[in-house]
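Example 9 (inverse folding). The structure is encoded as follows.
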């Protein structure tokens, strides 16, 4: 798999080639013909702030999965992001407010495992062992590396987190909390309030 280098970046992870770009690739028509699964997500919000991204992944000459999407918000810190977990053959894609998960089965077939929404716009994916964290403008959320959502919590800028062992130390506007990366923050029970 290769393409006009315009704005595309090709990453190689083990046997996988992953091509990511923010403009339609010259070979998009060929990618779509050869891919086993093609997903296209059109724009749904204000067209003045719509970005474009594509992700093509495969283990041969042509991609097995192609995902194209228009997204919003775009620019101003809202860049698309991709995280690939090779031992689980799991792909996480974030762009604008859209979050997508894909899994490659044992026979090489790709399937969509989740569609979710990032509160006010996706920032980044990060893998911490068997947990994938998603940062957004107003949200921190966790998935297993298999693509199962574990938890989500509201945040407000400025915010940041760091991992200490298995615990996430979260700082939201100077308010600090800590919780396990698998279970997320605990909420007070109704009887305690």
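The amino acid assigned to each position is listed next.
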């Amino acid at each position: 798999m290769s393409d006009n280098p315009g704005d595309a970046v090709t990453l190689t992870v083990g046997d996988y080639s992953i091509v990511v770009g923010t403009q339609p690739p010259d070979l998009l028509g060929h990618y779509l013909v050869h891919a086993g699964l093609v997903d296209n997500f059109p724009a749904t919000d204000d067209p003045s702030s719509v970005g474009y991204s594509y992700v093509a992944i495969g283990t041969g000459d042509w991609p097995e999965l192609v995902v194209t999407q228009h997204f919003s918000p775009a620019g101003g810190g809202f860049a698309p992001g991709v995280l690939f977990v090779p031992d689980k053959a799991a792909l996480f894609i974030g762009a604008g407010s859209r979050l997508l998960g894909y899994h490659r089965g044992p026979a090489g077939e790709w399937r969509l495992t989740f569609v979710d929404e990032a509160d006010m716009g996706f920032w980044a994916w990060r893998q911490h062992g068997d947990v994938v964290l998603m940062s957004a403008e107003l949200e921190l959320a966790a998935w297993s590396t298999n693509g199962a959502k574990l938890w989500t919590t509201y945040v407000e800028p400025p915010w940041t987190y760091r991992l200490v062992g298995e615990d996430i130390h979260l700082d939201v506007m100077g308010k600090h909390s800590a919780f396990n990366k698998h279970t997320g923050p605990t909420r007070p029970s109704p009887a305690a309030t």
